[in-house]
Amino acid sequence: MSNMFDLTGKVAVVTGASSGLGRDAALSYADYGADVALLARRKEKLDEVAREIEAKGRKAIPIACDVSDEASVKAAVAEVIEHFSKVDILLNNAGIAVAGTVEELSEADWDKSMDINVKGLYLMSKYVVPHMKKQKYGKIVNIASINAIIADKGYDLARHAYNTSKAAVRGLTMGMAATFMEENITVNSIGPGLFESEMTADSLFKHEGFMKLYNGLSPASRPGRKGELNGTIIYLSSDASSYVTSQHIIVDGGFSIV
Which domain of life is it from (predicted)? Predict the structure, then answer.
């Protein structure tokens, strides 16, 4: 029986690939046989990830890209096509979490959240989808959050712009999935629970009261560990999910069910 999870010969594009969950996913793609285009604003960090991927025997190209800027995205995708000639997988992972209620958030912080978390996903898809349509094949995986469907209580934990932007990711995922399935392009989203990353290490993980509450409520009694999101990402990026589209898979150790 062939390995439906094998990504040999595929080209994956990962945004926010310089650290955290994006870096882990990029390395996992390489482990399953894919070549990887690494996109983020910090080129020096991408160079490090590219070297790790090449050490696994796969090809990697690091590209400095601001996903909220159309010219930057257009140029980045053109560079990927010039280098690899195609895109099979797009992992829209780049994102930020700005704390604050609607009363506290500045307009600039609100706009920044929407620009990176929603507009960035739209722009990347805008320039990648035409190439997927040409080859009649594509896997788009959008990283949303459990905060698309649940919120954190308390003023000190409120992230209203983040809640809004991640709910919008679900909406765009469904819209694209409904349109592009006939082109053999699947579009799904993932809702991670709490994982340690640059985004959470200096905020939620340092909030003693929150961590105690999270671990107490979670059926897993802990946050997600490094690598525990990769299985879901590989599944949705591989032919194992060829008839799966518009789904939102929550990976949170059961936190959202209690």
Answer: Bacteria
